[in-house]
Amino acid sequence: MGADQHLDWRNAAASTLDWWVEAGVDTLVDELPRDWLVPEERPAPASLQPAAPAAEPLPGYPATYAEFVAYRMGDLAPDARWAPARVGPSGDPATATLMVLTDVPEEADGIAGHLLAGTEGRLLDRMLAAIGISREQTLLASVCVARPLAGRVPRASATELEALARHLVGIVRPKRLLLLGQTASRAVLGTNGGTNGDCSQALNDGNLACKAVATYHPRVLLERPMCKAEAWRDLQLLIEENDA
To answer: Hey, what's the torsion of the CAs at 81, 85, 91, 92, to 10 degrees?
Structure first.
């Protein structure tokens, strides 16, 4: 009788935080007072906003894929001490037809040794199969290689980790890029991230020709099945003529 004594409060709290992050809420209160009677200025449409910097390799980080992965899995990486298990990218950048970027490793990934090894990964596999792509054809990477305690990227580390994610995209130079969730989207697209659908224009300024699409993270789709129809529309944007 009474409350459920087996409630996993940590997973429940992390799930709630993820829900609000996906909804665009990243702070509880404003740092400065606000006059709620003054109308809020609406941002200019995305098409009128300046494009984010091109995702090309940044100086100071390893310039090759193998060297970059070795650095990210090493003790000098900014997220190296978050968890004993680190999960690096999987797939071959030379043969992958699609690059998928997620935010953090799931709890099952550290044991399995690869990203999206659990329920979320099985859903992703079905999503990709629906557009004719298998995991073996995919390069799968994450903004973090170690899972944060709360399951989301700490704000204090976000800037450097986002720079590393953009650097990796610049190294891989994928033909097609799928961004799972707002954390991955903002890491690559900067202020232009956060909206699902075709975001190629925000990424491509002539230095990186890439079909980029942002959509819901599989964990959100598991919690909110009503979003699957929208996610399917996003995925269809990645289908090329020779895939049909």
So the answer is: 50
Cα distance between residue 96 and residue 133, in whole Å: 10
Q: Per residue in 43-62, pLDDT tens?
A: 444 443 443 443 444 457 99
Q: Is 76 helix (H, G, I), strand (E, B) or coil?
A: coil
- Would you state the pLDDT for residue 203? 76
Cα separation, 193 vs 185, in Å, equals: 5
CA distance 179 to 189: 10
Q: How far apart are CA 226 and CA 220, in angstroms?
A: 10
Residue 170's nearest CA partner among 128, 212, 132, 199 is 212
The pTM assigned to this predicted structure is 0.75
For residue 203, count other CB atoms closer than 10 A to its CB.
26
CATH class of the 54-243 domain in this structure: alpha beta
Q: How far is CA 37 from the centre of its chain?
A: 36
* H helix runs in 23-154, sequence order: 65-72, 109-112, 119-129
Tens of pLDDT, residues 177-212: 999 999 999 999 887 766 899 988 887 555 577 899
